[in-house]
Design goal:
The chain is an alpha/beta fold. The chain is built from 10 helices and 10 strands. It is globular and about 50 Å long.
Length: 299
């Protein structure tokens, strides 16, 4: 006899607290944090978004940025999708891959713009197709990770329903990404994942071993952002480090790299630490300083 509620949907219902299943303990069915063994190994990378004004002005291209990352002694380079040509083709992607390899540097990942809280329709289909396209692009470049967004609640749609819409879109993309060996990292980037509870609800509910959190250290603005980062760290598949944090008081403070390093070590994180510089200073001057600070903190 078939179950009235398939296991896959049952797990989602538990994690989201769907009416009628209120007596179920969601934690009993949550996806477990990633299991990692041996010593924590952290690798420095730099996000192309740090140099956004130079990319936008046309004074920097991806090949020059890769050279810059290599010159800073970074292990990786994060090539944000925004800075690829509009007429992107396989030849260009392979040229990027070859260039990075010859510079002795890995393409640690990329990042896309998307919204997964749209209701069924053309907008939703377009964003799902876009993420899948970048799965193909990432596979060609040898980039193992794509940063994705969740989205915001639309008018007339509850937070619970928005989460379900997001989860189903992520699962569709993750099924495709997993067949190419690409991880999808949901960033804690405002909207329906502004609060730590909500991003954990989503990542625990998604039924895929190819999905985790793209942990941005500057994007939680609670009374204790470091507490929230620690809660998410066991689910991290990529970490983007900002040089400033602020909580509910909106007081901007320098990021405590040592504290961040300890949080990630305690979680057993093994992966890329990507500097994403968003301050007003010249990244050509500031990034080398912060790369050096991160190298020391995460040594």
């Amino acid at each position: 006899m078939k179950d009235a509620l398939p296991r896959r949907h049952f797990l989602k219902a538990c994690s989201l607290g769907i009416a009628g299943l209120g007596t179920i303990n969601p934690a009993a069915f949550a996806i477990e944090p990633f299991k990692r063994s041996e010593a924590t190994r952290l690798q420095l990378s730099l996000a192309a978004y740090s140099f956004r004004k130079f990319f936008s002005a046309g004074t920097l291209d991806l090949f020059q940025f890769i050279d810059y990352c290599a010159a800073q002694g970074c292990v990786g380079t994060e090539l944000t999708s925004y800075y690829f040509p509009e007429d992107l083709d396989e030849a260009f992607l392979l040229k990027v891959r070859r260039h990075a390899y010859l510079r002795g540097i890995a393409i640690s990942g990329t990042a896309v713009r998307n919204t997964f809280t749209h209701r069924p329709g053309a907008k939703r289909d377009k964003d799902i197709a876009w993420v899948k396209r970048w799965v193909d692009y990432s596979a060609l470049m040898g980039a193992p990770h794509i940063r994705i967004f969740a989205g915001q609640t639309e008018r007339g749609v509850s937070l619970a329903e928005s989460k379900k819409l997001c989860i189903s879109a992520i699962e569709e993309c993750a099924d495709y990404a997993g067949r190419k060996g690409i991880f999808l990292g949901i960033e804690n980037h405002g909207g329906i994942v502004a609060e730590v509870k909500d991003i954990l609800d989503i990542v625990r509910a998604v039924q895929s071993p190819w999905v985790g959190i793209n942990l941005d250290t500057g994007n939680f603005h609670s009374d204790d952002p470091y507490r929230d980062l620690a809660a998410c760290a066991p689910y991290a598949v990529n970490v983007q480090v900002k040089v400033v944090v602020h909580g509910k008081d909106k007081v901007r403070k320098p990021s405590d790299f040592g504290r961040l390093a300890n949080i990630l070590r305690d979680a057993g994180y093994r992966g890329y630490i990507v500097l994403e510089y968003e301050e007003k200073g010249d990244p050509r001057v500031e990034c080398p300083k912060f790369v050096d600070q991160l190298r020391k903190a995460f040594a």
